[in-house]
Amino acid sequence: MLVVRTDLAEAQAAAWQELGSAGPCFTGAQRVELMQTAIDAYFDRAPLPPWVTPSSVTGRLPANPLSRPVAHDIVFRVAAHAGTLTESWYRSMVDQVGERAYIELVALTCTVVPIISFRRALGLEPWAMPAVVDGPPTNVVAESLASATLNWVPVAAPADQTASVLQAFTALPTENARVWRLAATQYIPNDEMSDPHWTRGTLTRPQIELVAMRVSQLRQCFF
Amino acid sequence: MLRWSGHENGNDVDLDALGQNHPGSVSPLDVALHEFASAAAIGEVDALTTAREHLLGLAGADVLVDSAAIVANFEMMTRLADGTGCRMPAGGVEANVAVVAAFGFGDVVSKR
Around Cβ A158, how many Cβ atoms within 10 Å? Predict the structure, then answer.
């Protein structure tokens, strides 16, 4: 039987459960419903093509979704076809849902996908959806936002003082913290990133990067 | 990161061999990691089962778990980068020309 190290198991479990509670722009019930869209998109071996939205196809979304259909469309596109995203698509989505909601939807997808991917990779049973915690959206946003040159999305001010991936979700501190807690246990703690010899005692750093590179290649991710 | 960390560990990685999915002279563990990462990302059940069992037999459960965690992380990071429009800092592309060429990243849709 496989044993998942404690720090990793706890970080993933906490992240999964957190999605049952309200985020900055969506309620817990909305987030759980959106999680299902991300799961369906990721596991679909023959997903809709990028230019077809699930909201335009009968039966792809709940009959009376708790969130606007465009929110599901964003989650679907990021989960199934992230490598095809363009800035014009981003702008058109933000025109409909707003910047903060867009960031939360991407962060939600970025929480669901690694956890379901991890469990599938190891042949582990999928987790049940988290319990919904009632309550309104938190509206927790960084004190001051700024436009970035290294990202499409706005970030916590001042912008562009750090790498684009590190500032990407800083507009929404709770979403940002959750994603980076996952990264520290799934990959490498950020403080160790510049050490080419860092290891957990299993894979060497080059072996870690080999796996990372292969996934990035298959996902067509230039970054 | 791959090229840099390999060099710093005295083990320059054959990027061309790996990028073309013909690991050639690289170690059996590197091949198993490459196959597992591929199968986990693609998700075809039989191929994933085979790759998982191969890696488990070759390197043990702890390596398998950590490998799955890295796959998971880059399922996350690729979506973070593409979903928020992350751009390379100045000089970032030039510093990684060998990796871009070997893995065909110059042709991907998300290049910007």
Answer: 11
Q: Parallel, antiparallel, or unpaired: how do β-strands A155-156 and A145-146 relate?
A: antiparallel
CB A173: neighbour CB atoms within 10 A?
Answer: 15
Q: Which of these, A201, A6, A32, A222, lies nearest to A130 by C-alpha position?
A: A32
Q: For residue A193, what pLDDT is reported? A: 87
| DSSP string for residues in A127-151 | PPPPPP----------SSEE--SS-
Nearest to B83 among A78, A122, A196 (CB): A78
Which H or E run includes A99? helix A99-122
- ipTM score of the complex? 0.96
| Chain B residues lying within 8 Å of A179, measured CB to CB | 76, 80
Four-residue CA torsion sign, B6, B79, A79, A85? negative
pLDDT tens readout for residues B53-106: 999 999 999 999 999 999 999 999 999 999 999 998 766 556 666 656 665 666
**Residue B30 contacts A where some CB pair is shorter than 8 Å:** yes
The alpha carbon of residue A44 is apart from the nearest alpha carbon of chain B, in Å, by 10
> Could you identify the residue written with the tokens 């009376």?
A64
